[in-house]
């Protein structure tokens, strides 16, 4: 298999951006079909793309990612309640520094989630989450719901509210290979419920 290069990473990012664009269009008609497409395309990228988060040595054994079944009860839309906070530094999974800026919160029936701006060149909206499945069915470090730097953007509804479909929650790259550097969800991003939706731990 082809090894990682920056050209392959560029192609990977383009494909992920295109994937979420297609997901948003499909979800306007049927979110479950959009989720099925998302799963299928992620398996293709993770299994064969040179910039896959899966370690090169593990890819020949890759049989696909695991997910909870799609559940429409976990699809919400909510306005961003803006409340800008002080920029702060977090340590990624490999100990590198990353700056985040709180820009508000979203309130869904399961609780409130803080929304961050990744405060680097270009920036992006970042919504990580932790819940009662972490360390069991899902990665102990939590999952991501939105990360617009990487194209993971579920869009907005007709009112302009953010779409927050927890069926699309996915693991950071460091879940698949410790060499990746990822910001992890902090205690402020924890929902008390068990979110039985989205990606489950990968058993390689």
Task: Provide a descriptive summary of the structure in words.
This protein is of the alpha+beta class and 204 residues long. Helix content is 20%, strand content 22%. The protein has one domain (6-189). The protein is built from two helices and eight strands, in the order H-H-E-E-E-E-E-E-E-E. The model has no long low-confidence stretch (mean pLDDT 95).
Features:
six-stranded antiparallel sheet, alpha+beta, 204 residues, two-stranded antiparallel sheet
Task: Identify the quaternary structure here.
Answer: single chain
Low-confidence stretches: none
Query: Total strand count, please?
Result: 8
> Please, how many helices?
2
Topology:
Blueprint: H1 6-27, H2 31-48, E1 75-78, E2 81-82, E3 88-91, E4 97-108, E5 111-118, E6 125-129, E7 143-147, E8 162-165
Antiparallel strand pairs: 1-8, 2-4, 3-4, 4-5, 5-6, 6-7
Structure in a nutshell:
The chain has 204 residues and is α+β, with helices and mostly antiparallel strands.
């Amino acid at each position: 298999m082809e090894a990682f290069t920056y050209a392959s990473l560029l192609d990977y990012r383009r494909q992920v951006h295109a994937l979420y664009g297609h997901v948003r269009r499909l979800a306007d008609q049927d979110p479950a079909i959009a989720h099925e497409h998302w799963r299928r395309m992620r398996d293709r990228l993770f299994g064969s793309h040179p910039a896959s988060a899966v370690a090169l040595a593990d890819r020949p054994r890759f049989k696909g990612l695991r997910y909870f079944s799609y559940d429409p009860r976990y699809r919400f839309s909510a306005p961003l309640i803006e409340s800008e906070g002080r920029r702060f530094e977090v340590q990624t999974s490999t100990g590198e520094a990353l700056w985040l800026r709180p820009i508000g919160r979203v309130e869904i029936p399961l609780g409130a989630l803080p929304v961050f701006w990744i405060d680097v060149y270009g920036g992006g909206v970042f919504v990580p989450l932790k819940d009662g499945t972490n360390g069991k069915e899902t990665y102990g470090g939590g999952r991501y719901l939105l990360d617009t730097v990487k194209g993971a953007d579920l869009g907005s509804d007709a009112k302009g509210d953010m779409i927050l479909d927890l069926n699309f929650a996915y693991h950071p790259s460091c879940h698949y290979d410790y060499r990746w550097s990822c910001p992890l969800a902090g205690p402020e991003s924890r929902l008390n419920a068990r979110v039985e939706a989205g990606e489950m731990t990968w058993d390689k």
